[in-house]
Design goal:
The chain is an all-alpha fold. Helix content is 49%, strand content 0%. The protein contains nine helices and no strands. The chain has helices at residues 11-15, 56-60, 63-80, 85-88, 93-107, 119-122, 130-147, 151-161, 165-168. Helix 3 (63-80) crosses helix 5 (93-107) and helix 3 (63-80) packs across helix 7 (130-147). It is globular and about 35 Å long. The model is unreliable at 8-43 (pLDDT under 50).
Length: 171
């Protein structure tokens, strides 16, 4: 069995869309995943991580449709989770689901363009604690499990997102 990263590694990505005024992200509608060898900085926003090279991880997440399901499931779980549900009150949850989906799609090397705020700006004044971050990561991991994403591929994404904890956690 593959070792999973602790929850603290991944919650930053989910919290990215929690800012109530975060701008929308645009999605490239092309059918083929874009190659992600060294794309440089994102054209419109900073999703907090560079894309994973190649398309193996993107495909393991069941491409855009699977990523959309994971994003929606994670937001739904988090909004219902008594540990962190207060963070999700008075938020535009459909918008958050879309933002998270596009952010994950971009980082997984898919054909999406992230146009949202950088992670520091998106989480400013939210007061995210380590425990909140960890709860969000747990919900994401459950969503990835539900989608049938192999642990090894989950860990590739978690490793890309881990550095965001330093920016997202504020207290």
């Amino acid at each position: 069995m593959m070792r999973r990263f602790p929850p603290a590694l991944f919650a930053a990505v989910l919290a990215a869309g929690l800012a109530p005024t975060a701008p929308a992200m645009a999605q490239d509608q092309s059918a083929e995943p874009a190659p992600a060898a060294d794309p440089g900085p994102p054209p419109n926003g900073d999703p907090g991580a560079t894309p994973i090279a190649g398309d193996a991880v993107y495909k393991a997440f069941h491409e855009k449709a699977g990523i959309d399901r994971i994003g929606a499931d994670t937001v739904d779980r988090s909004a219902a989770d008594p540990r962190i549900s207060d963070i999700f009150k008075n938020r535009d949850l459909p918008h958050l689901k879309e933002m998270l989906s596009v952010q994950l799609c971009y980082i997984l090397g898919g054909p999406c363009t992230y146009a949202g705020k950088d992670m520091k700006t998106a989480h400013k004044d939210m007061g995210v604690r380590v425990a909140d971050f960890n709860a969000l990561v747990e919900n994401l991991q459950k969503a990835m499990d539900r989608e049938g994403v192999p642990f090894r591929m989950q860990n590739r994404l978690l490793a890309k997102l881990a550095p965001q904890q330093r920016v997202v956690v504020q207290r």
